[in-house]
Amino acid sequence: MRLAHSRAVADPLIVLDSCGSTNAELRERLAGERLGHLAALVTDSQTAGRGRLDRTWTTPAGSALAVSVLLRDLPADVDAWGWLPLAAGVAMTDAVAAQLSAHDVGFKWPNDVLVGGRKICGILAEVTPDGVIMGSGVNTAMTADELPVPTATSFAALGASADIDRLLSDYLTGLRDLVAELTRVGPVASGLHAAAERRCLSLGRDVEVTMPHGETLHGRAVRLHDDACLVVEADGAERAVASGDVVHARLA
Asked: Taking 70 as the threshold, does the pLDDT of residue 251 lie above it?
């Protein structure tokens, strides 16, 4: 992968033929390498990736793009960091949509990118002493037979050939600009709040949210709170959800 446009954005761009987990690899390199804001590590062969709720994530070599990005220039208000995964969701949604313009692209709160209701990308944020690492995996050349679950999709399964350099550089540029404005003026004034609500496919849907402690909440997702929580209306009351696994009810 030459990735000339992506190299112009990342600081630096590290390309590996294969690795276990891009998040873990980037985290280990923090001790011995100069890694700036927006340093990115990528591979198309990740053998021990980790998703949300500690799920494993592996793909056939060459079938998906795994990328981890280091964010160092962050909002001074740690409460605003909850917007970072949504910024990544917005940036990746736009990067994917730029190449799949004929399809309905958006994200399921907080940051799974969906095409036609099927997952094409997952994003996982990890806080470290040096900043926040944003890991993502995009199904690119994965065939329909290689997709892990019926609710997944890929560029190839949609009959498209992903331009990897364009996808990555669009994502990095979008993420850079969204985080910079979030840091400068906050989620509302920066437009991130509105941008996330426009692209969030969970809003207006009946959802089932499984909380980290095991509780399940059924209701309708109505908006994003100012702190990036998902506001769910259930039994006549609104409840702000900070984290959880969201399942969309099937549309009638």
From this structure: no
% of the chain residues with pLDDT over 70: 94
pTM (two decimals): 0.94
The pair of structure tokens assigned to 182 is: 């979030």
Q: Residue 85, preceding bond cis, omega within 30 degrees? A: no
Whether pLDDT at 213 is above 90: no
Tell which residue, 14, 19, 52, has the closest CA to residue 36. 14
CA 142 – CA 148 distance, rounded (Å): 10
* 35: phi then psi, degrees, rounded to nearest 5: -120, 115
Q: How far apart are CA 252 and CA 115, in angstroms?
A: 18
pLDDT tens column, 5-38:
999 999 999 999 999 999 999 999 999 999 999 9
